[in-house]
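seq as requested:
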Amino acid sequence: MESKTKSISNREAFRDYAVLETLECGIELKGSEVKSIREGKATIKDSFARIDNGEVLLYNVHISPYAQASFLNVEPMRIRKLLLHKNQINHLAMETAQKKLTLIPLKFYFNKREKVKVELGLAKGKRLFDKREDLKQREIDLEVKRIMRRR
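struct tokens:
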């Protein structure tokens, strides 16, 4: 049975960062948080992940309190643990330390087994001129498509 919920994505991440590598990981959530994500009431706009004591922690993710949960709701901006294998954490730690890369959540979604997954991206920050180059390239691609349609 496929999930009918939309995934929650971080569109600004592709504008501000060059994503070099992505990986799927689980996230440690409470029951009311899962229901809020299913309703699409989460924001990962300015969020990032950090490696502390061999654990990958997710910061600045806002998951709105679930309306029907009453006293079982948790703090919306709490720090959440990402679930990865030890060798994956070691790989990410090496990449972020040596190459000055950042860990950014790109998307929250439900997999086939209805578990919440996070698509985590290993990214390098873009400078202003990189962003301008992307805009120029996008304009050129659009113009080529227009010309091809006219023929």
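Helices lie at 11-16, 31-38, 86-99, 128-150.
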